[in-house]
Amino acid sequence: MLLTVEDVNDHAPRLVRPMRNVLVREDERPGTPLMQIVAYDEDTGANGRLAYGIAAGNEDGLFQLDPKSGKLEAVERRW
User: What is the pTM of this model?
Assistant: First the structure.
């Protein structure tokens, strides 16, 4: 899965910790937190707000990423 943090002004957002692999069990319960993505942007005010998103690799909708907090969690299986 590819996660993105995008910004369109002067300073690019930066991750606090490098991205890492997360092992998810097949029977993981919905709502289980898998990782917390934390980034910052040196822009101020509205220009410094970040939005987290899943750019690719979630075609089955098994994960959700909170656009404000960066919390990635498992969601209910759809099969």
Answer: 0.76
